[in-house]
User: Fold Cytidylate kinase from Treponema berlinense.
Amino acid sequence: MSKNYVITIARGFGSGGKQTATQIGEKLGIPVYEKQILEMASAYSGLSEEMFIEVDEKLRGNYVTNALAKFTFPKEVSPTSKRFESDINLFCIQAEIIKQLAQNVSCVIIGKCADHILKDFDNVASFYIEAPRKECLESIMTKTGVNEKEAAKMIENTDKYRSEYYKFYSGGNYWTNPVNYDLTLNSARVGRGRCADVIIDYMRRRFGADFEDTFKGKI
Assistant:
């Protein structure tokens, strides 16, 4: 019986990380989860999807000022609790969805602190994709039509709230820490069209025959 494997992708804004995740999914014939996790968390919990969108990889209120070193990964609370709609519980609901995916299907998961959530799973490999600011600026300007100043602000704000989100929910770790990941790739040097191949080749080397059997005829 073939095993299931999960690839998590963390990415700097404008680095092409989502493009890489999509290419991996196409090459291996497996689903790619990003916004879909918010939909699944909504269906699982009965809470509106808009609530999950509001806290998608970002913090609200004064959570950033909490004592991060004392933070322990929380357990999901009951729908009868007053804390059921708290940001922390919304995170825990998403974390449960991510764990269920890792236990049952081969897939690619973009963002969502997935590398930390799945750090103890032996069928998971995690990757961080970044690029020089110039490359990210050009990518954002091309995709959105904004000018360079607006693109720079978008990159600064997005990377900032992703970093704060990761630091809070990982208990103080930092998002770009290379030891969080199996590999960190500079998409400008590797080439945006080749990052997916590098990651798939790494999966073959790390997981060997079991991975090759699972994706026989696709790699």
Strands lie at 6-11, 32-33, 107-110, 124-130, 183-186. Confidence is low (pLDDT under 50) at residues 62-74, 79-84. The longest helix spans residues 148-169.
